Amino acid sequence: MIIDSHQHLILPTELQIEQMNKAGVDKAILFTTTPHPEKAKTLTEFKNEMSILFKILGGENSLENNKKRFKKDISDLMKVINNYPDKFYGFGTVPLGLSLEETQIWIKQYIIDNELKGVGEFTPRNDGQVSQLETIFKALKQYENFPIWVHTFNPVTLNGIKILENLTKKYSKTPVIFGHMGGYNWMEVTDFVKNTPNAYIDLSAAFSTLALKMIITEVPDKCLFSSDAPYGDSFLNKQAIKYLSPSKKISDKILGENIIKLLGLK
Hints:
The chain has ten helices and eight strands. The chain is α/β, with parallel strands linked by helices and 266 residues long. It has one domain (3-263): TIM Barrel, CATH 3.20.20. The strands form two sheets. A five-stranded parallel beta sheet has the order 4-5-6-7-8. A three-stranded parallel beta sheet has the order 1-2-3. The termini are close together.
């Protein structure tokens, strides 16, 4: 089974499923989204959609506004998953800045009760927000092998990645997916994942096929195929993995077997 382990909610859902079918992807793990760049027909429309994302990354929203937005985004996600359970699994968002007790309540109510498979995507805009992830790690201690997905490309810095690495080692029972290969810091992330049992690498947003090839070669059991759709394309990413993998056995692991094992999927 081929599973795209990181897609965002695309509207209409029928379009997303059509794209998956064309790409030869059996299932996808959906993440919430607020902007919908797939709707854009022109550069101006795309800029308008992305401005929503940039405001979020810039920290312009208050905690209360973030909570309202996350609740709506999770509600939209669950409607799609419930309507198409044969096509989608899901990860759910958790606001940063809540107390430990509030975070535990949120995870129970919006993640566990909805039978989502993990938490994320977290996109820390500075090192301080990476440190805030410790509250999430603490809240996840009561759930065995429940993964957290963290964006590790820009604006996350090398120092931010090192903070995340320390948290990954400290909370060794929680699987941590380093999203987008660590960006320009992919060599640092690859070395860390290779030597850390609970660390994994998401292969979306690869800016270099050389980086992708090196990661596949070094940590084939820790790599997860994903597209980050609509920002990436499932078919192209799948073909890159097939082309760069040294064997079909390894590409099969990356394209589905690794994420099935990590999440305990049937």
